């Protein structure tokens, strides 16, 4: 797996594309350590992501996210699941691309809406419309990623297997 040897495998994409769930499966399949940036931030700050947004605001969250990304980019051999907004910062994108192979998990807006229906854990979905936010971010994911994987209509383990096949295909 030349694509990820000595590197991290990094998942980016919109909320609900399955970064956290697929990342965990990939770490198992590849026998690598799994780190989810949101989880890391929550642990560091001692509160959940919605609590952190409510208590300190998005800017504070983004600063914490940037620190965590920089820290993970200095490590190797990880599977890293990011939060959907990680690509808003050009420095994050640079770090992630230099330290890892960046896979964009994607799905159409209707699929994402269904997956996230009733979700209360994603503060940004409570205010902005999902479709609007997706439209604003799509180009950022495309530019940041080395490859895109469509997750619509596929179970998480099918997506994970597809990512592994993609890495193996590169020898
Ligand atoms: N491929 C998939 N098919 C169906 N549901 C999925 C898929 N991937 C994730 N989900 C569901 O969508 C929700 C968000 O998944 P999650 O892994 O937290 O996404 P992300 O970290 O990208 O926001 C969860 O309820 C999860 O079970
Ligand atoms: O898209 C975003 O800006 C965010 C996505 C969330 O992560 P997931 O993409 O894992 O849901 C989390 O980082 C935070 O709520 C902000
Ligand atoms: Mg997640």
What does this molecule look like?
The protein starts with 7 loop residues before the first strand and ends with a helix. The radius of gyration is 15 Å and the shape is globular. It has helices at 19-30, 37-45, 49-56, 58-73, 90-99, 109-116, 123-127, 130-144, 156-169; strands at residues 8-12, 33-36, 78-81, 100-106, 147-150. The chain has a single domain, classed as Rossmann fold. It contains 9 helices and 5 strands. The protein is α/β, with parallel strands linked by helices and 171 residues long. The structure holds adenosine-5'-diphosphate, shikimate-3-phosphate (S3P) and magnesium ion (MG). Shikimate-3-phosphate binds at residues 15, 19-20, 38, 49, 83-85, 122-124.
Concise account of the structure shown:
The chain is of the alpha/beta class. It is built from 9 helices and 5 strands. The radius of gyration is 15 Å and the shape is globular.
Layout of strands and helices, then pairs:
Elements: E1 8-12, H1 19-30, E2 33-36, H2 37-45, H3 49-56, H4 58-73, E3 78-81, H5 90-99, E4 100-106, H6 109-116, H7 123-127, H8 130-144, E5 147-150, H9 156-169
Parallel strand pairs: 1-3, 1-4, 2-3, 4-5
Helix pairs in contact: 1-9, 2-4, 3-4, 4-5
Bound molecules: adenosine-5'-diphosphate (ADP), shikimate-3-phosphate and magnesium ion.
Cofactor: Mg(2+)
GO molecular function: ATP binding; magnesium ion binding; shikimate kinase activity
InterPro entries: P-loop_NTPase, Shikimate/glucono_kinase, Shikimate_kinase/TSH1, Shikimate_kinase_CS
């Amino acid at each position: 797996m030349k694509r990820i040897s000595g590197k991290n495998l990094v998942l980016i994409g919109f909320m609900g594309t399955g970064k956290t769930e697929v990342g965990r499966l990939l770490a198992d399949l590849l026998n690598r350590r799994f780190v989810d940036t949101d989880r890391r931030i929550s642990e560091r700050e001692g509160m959940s992501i919605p609590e952190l947004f409510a208590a300190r605001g998005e800017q504070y969250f983004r600063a914490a996210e940037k620190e965590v990304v920089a820290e993970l980019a200095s490590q190797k051999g990880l599977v890293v699941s990011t939060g959907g907004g990680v690509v808003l910062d050009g420095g994050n994108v640079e770090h992630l691309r230099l330290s890892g192979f960046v896979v964009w998990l994607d799905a159409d807006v209707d699929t994402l809406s269904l997956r996230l229906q009733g979700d209360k854990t994603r503060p940004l979905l409570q205010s902005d419309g999902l479709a609007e936010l997706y439209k604003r971010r799509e180009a950022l994911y495309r530019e940041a990623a080395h490859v895109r994987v469509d997750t619509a209509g596929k179970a998480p383990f099918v997506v994970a297997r597809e990512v592994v096949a993609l890495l193996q295909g590169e020898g």
